Amino acid sequence: MPRSRPPADLRRAPQQERSQAMVERIVTAGQAVLEREGYSRFTTNRVAVEAGISPGSFYQYFADKHAVLAAVVDRHSAQLSTQLTGVLTAHLDRPGPELVRATLDGLMDALEHNVEFLRLIVEQLPRAQYGDRTAALEQRIGDLVSAYLQINRPRSRVHEPATSAWMLVRTVEHLAVQYVLEDPDITRERFVEELAAMVLAYVEPHR
């Protein structure tokens, strides 16, 4: 009597899981090589060696070094997005000053987690080629900020929440990144207070 075969989707599941695990393995190896060698010395062969696979196996999952670099940046952006979204959503019911300070503290925690990797992304990766990889992160955070401003519009000086959210997200992101990378003679607590004051002055009504 012929042995029954499992449904096709059940046969594919282990293979898909293995494929996803290999992708993660290669992306992790790619980040390690980028951190150790820098962008100029980043090659597919180095990534393959780091991942413990052959170059041929590498090309089964990624077309070239740019594809794996994009995946490295995407994963970094997704991790930031998850962390910041969690902070924002956990404090949406708080008064404006508490929400702003909590969000800024969360942003600083995320950026300071791996400063040298952040420096590599900002200073070495060609912005024209990889700059748009952070667009999804900015859009997701911007949508949350815009929704908050819309809900609290009667208690703020904001007239166009989407416009204000776009400006706030990019201004705060730029200042926070530069603070982390330049490491000025300003305490983090003072920096967060000053940045929070700027944000609140922009969105809150004049007293």
From TrEMBL:
This is TetR/AcrR family transcriptional regulator. Residues 1-15 have a biased composition (Basic and acidic residues). Pfam families: TetR_C_15 (PF17918), TetR_N (PF00440). Residues 20-80 form the HTH tetR-type domain. Signal peptide: none annotated. It comes from the Bacteria. PROSITE patterns: HTH_TETR_1 (PS01081), HTH_TETR_2 (PS50977). PANTHER family: HTH-TYPE TRANSCRIPTIONAL REGULATOR BETI (PTHR30055:SF234), HTH-TYPE TRANSCRIPTIONAL REGULATOR RUTR (PTHR30055). The keyword Phosphoprotein does not apply. Residues 43-62 bind DNA. InterPro entries: DNA-bd_HTH_TetR-type_CS (IPR023772), Homeodomain-like_sf (IPR009057), HTH-type_TetR-like_transc_reg (IPR050109), HTH_TetR (IPR001647), TetR_C_15 (IPR041669). Residues 1-20 are annotated as: Disordered. Keywords: DNA-binding, Transcription, Transcription regulation. The lineage of its organism: Bacteria, Bacillati, Actinomycetota, Actinomycetes, Propionibacteriales.
